[in-house]
Amino acid sequence: MTYPKLPLLVSLVGFAKFAWFVAFNASVEAKRAGEAGRGFGVVADAVKDLAAKVESSSKEIMSTVGELDARIDALSREITVHDTGSAQEGGFHRALADVQSGVASISAAAEQSRAICDGLNSQMQEIEAEMHQTGHALDAAMGRSESVLKVSENLIDLVSHCGVETEDTPFITAAQEAAAQVSKLLEDSLRTGTVGEADLFDEQYKPMPRTQPQQHTTRFVELADRLFPQVQERTLGMSPKVVFCIAVDRNGYVATHNKKYCHPQRGDVVWDTANSRYRRIFNDRTGLASARNQRPFLLQTYRRDMGGGNFVVMKEAAAPIMVNGRHWGGLRLAFHF
Known about the structure:
By secondary structure, the chain is α+β, with helices and mostly antiparallel strands. It has helices at residues 6-33, 38-81, 86-161, 169-191, 197-200, 221-236, 269-275, 285-292, and strands at residues 206-207, 216-217, 242-249, 253-254, 280-281, 298-307, 310-323, 326-335. The protein is built from 8 helices and 8 strands; from the N terminus they run αααααββαββαβαβββ.
């Protein structure tokens, strides 16, 4: 015998698990948000408790339904096989009483689950409202931070281009010299036929399978692996403040990084994000600005994502890499304050 509401109970258990999972993720995001997400975290914890109660109650109902189904099957067999004598009639009434008791238990449990679901729905609505409110606040904060950052960068860039010597000047000069060296290496490769122009300017990035963060290959990676390290590693060693020195194409693609960031991926996305940074496309705001800059140099301030929620604030000087008058990309030199 089957019950039309049994699939609903099964769905209720699944919904409870889904709600618990959503609430768990919400509590994690609330902790990341710090003080701004405290209220959000309280609501998320309450939803997790309600979801657990819904799942427990629904499982109890399903168990009761199963017992009821077995009793009804036994009753059906008893009625079919035996005549309606006094002994059988007594068994029938006892079985019927058991069925009535089971139905009453199901009804009570269903009412309890309905009440819990109502509470869960209310809490989910509160979470949605909190999410919208927090999202708007974060968007506004990010917008203000971006505006302040742009003003600051423009002021620093203006001072630097006026020829005034600052603490950034040695790094700007180093970036320009390294860019000129990479340009010459690439031009020599074209002149000797080591690489063709179409291969050198290849933008058909091919994803490397089973890599996260995603890595890509192009037709000039072997050339980059052979030529770039001699310039990149030498410039990296100019000062303890230098974090990295890389040549990127105009789309922010890093064929080969500094040796300390060129480790093969291990399958740990946090470790890989920080230590396996070659064959990757960095097309964020800072990365693209440096890659596509064609002025003598560009000076920026930004947060570098090291994976696992870790960021490092630094400056970056970038200079264009030109190959026979054609813009190939940029030399990015990042350093601490």
